[in-house]
Amino acid sequence: MKVLVAEKIAEKGIEVLRKEGLQVDVKLGIDREELLKIIKDYDGIIVRSVTKINEEFYQHAEKLKVVGRAGNGVDNIIMEGATERGIIVVNTPDANTVSAAEHTIGLLIASCRNVAQANTAIKNRQWDRSKFKGVELQGKTVGIVGLGRIGSLVATRLQSFGMKTIAYDPYITDARFEKFGVEKREKLQDIMKEADFITVHTPKTEETFGMIGEEEFQLAKKGVRVVNCARGGIIGEEALEKAIKAGIVSSAGIDVLVNEPNTTSPLLDLDNVIITPHLGADTVEAQDNVGVTVAHEVVSALKGEMVPNAVNLPTLHHQELEAMRSYLQLGEILGKLYHQLERDAIEKIEIIYSGEVANMETSAISLAVLKGIFEPILKEQVNYVNARLIAQNRGIGITESREIANDNYMNLIRLKIKAKDKEFTVAGTVFAKKDLRIVDVNGFVFDVTPTPYMLVANNTDKPGMIGQMGTLLGTSRINIATMQVSRNSKGQQAMMFLTVDSDVRQETLKLILNVEGILKINFVKL
Ligand code: NAD
Ligand code: MLT
Fold this sequence. Notes:
Elements (H helix, E strand, L loop, with lengths): L1 E4 L5 H9 L3 E4 L5 H7 L5 E4 L7 H6 L5 E4 L9 H6 L3 E3 L6 H16 L2 H9 L17 E5 L3 H11 L4 E5 L5 H6 L3 E2 L3 H7 L2 E4 L13 H6 L4 E5 L8 H9 L3 E6 L18 E3 L8 H19 L15 H24 L6 E8 L6 H17 L8 H7 L3 E7 L7 E9 L2 E10 L3 E7 L2 E5 L4 E8 L4 H11 L4 E8 L5 E8 L5 H8 L4 E8 L1
Parallel strand pairs: 1-2, 1-3, 3-4, 4-5, 6-7, 6-9, 7-8, 9-10, 10-11, 11-12, 13-14
Antiparallel strand pairs: 13-15, 15-16, 16-17, 17-18, 19-21, 19-22, 20-21
Helix pairs in contact: 1-12, 5-7, 13-14, 14-15
Bound molecules: nicotinamide-adenine-dinucleotide and D-malate.
């Protein structure tokens, strides 16, 4: 498979991709026309914040399976287009947060102490101590807008300077404010009125873009100092320019602009603004971290695995994913049984989680179930990202429910699949964290360890059925690894579940189906 690296990532990340046998083409700063021309040949692309991954891009990206965002913000990526096409978008939200927080503090101190301006002056051979008087942080109030990963790191660091920290973030719990020793403010206006310093750490959304504008600056303390190391435009650029010119804002530290790259912003002409060209994450540590993390995620996505930090999938952290791995596998296997055992078009899928699995992020397991259900008929066109959409487009109703406990199993995933007037049921469990078992098919009880090749037969419960099955498979040179038989009541119907060592040909299946008493036989490939 081929991966295009369109923006700079650490060499260590590229090594990870190559070690996995991927063909990696590094074309930094590739022009748009060329990108659109060549992207059809690539399975994956890695970008930072400059490359626009939009509808126009997707229309050319015929083979694309994953977009790796080496960094945090995904505002350059249109998510709907990716999800519709089953393209996984991954990012590295934790890999550069410390660097971004440290850069924020760097900008805050540098701007309120005129470090950059004084440096320029002295390099121009001007020794001027009177022009660059600054202010202390100690005893002042910093208002933090957005108390997420970076906002909270900034808060705790600024507390060590003796600052009072207040924050506005309506989307987090009071416990998070308490955890970081930050006083909650209910409204942005409260921050504007109270803070001596304001720093923004929200994503760029419709709500946050321009959230600090002219009206907000009218409320601010005269001489307030601001920092934006999040996304360009969260502090409106024109509003900031006006507020600086009106003497409301004394200094600003800016790392991000609405249009990037940018060498023409009017903010560049203002003496009390210091600007860095989006350097928040540009440290050796963050870039190594980001590069290696995004490379591993791209590799996992190309292998069709559930990926932590996939933006268009349920959020899973690495540890959580490890704990869930066996359930994801089990869900997918149970799903894969349907179209290999039944033919009818599905109308409704009910997924029931019981026991300890019910406490997990079951929405991810449900995606694995759906991926499993459609894979036998759609092959690689289905993945975790588009599985739910595929079901919806086919008008299939999906319900999920949880039961606290199950009488027989510590954990259980049960599927009830309704098609025409029939209901197909299958259930499985995980023993000792790793041992997967299929324990029920249509009410027949088993204890089968799933393997790549399996045979499932329905037969009349009468003498000689097992023997004939064994003989026919033997003459067709199919080795039986395990065999289990389950019946509902004596002399009625039974089900045989065999795991075998190799593929079973259609002719063999026909021979078995000719045996009197065999009602149905299916070969299942996992
Ligand atoms: P995060 O998701 O951990 O935190 C964002 C916080 O903003 C959340 O707590 C959320 O509840 C809050 N929020 C959302 N909408 C809000 C609103 N309307 N009002 C108030 N709060 C709101 O994100 P993070 O990892 O801390 O990143 C923060 C920002 O920093 C992002 O924009 C990210 O892209 C940017 N970033 C920039 C650099 C850089 O190089 N300059 C590096 C990394 C991240
Ligand atoms: C991010 O969102 O991670 C930062 O803006 C840094 C970057 O884009 O490299």
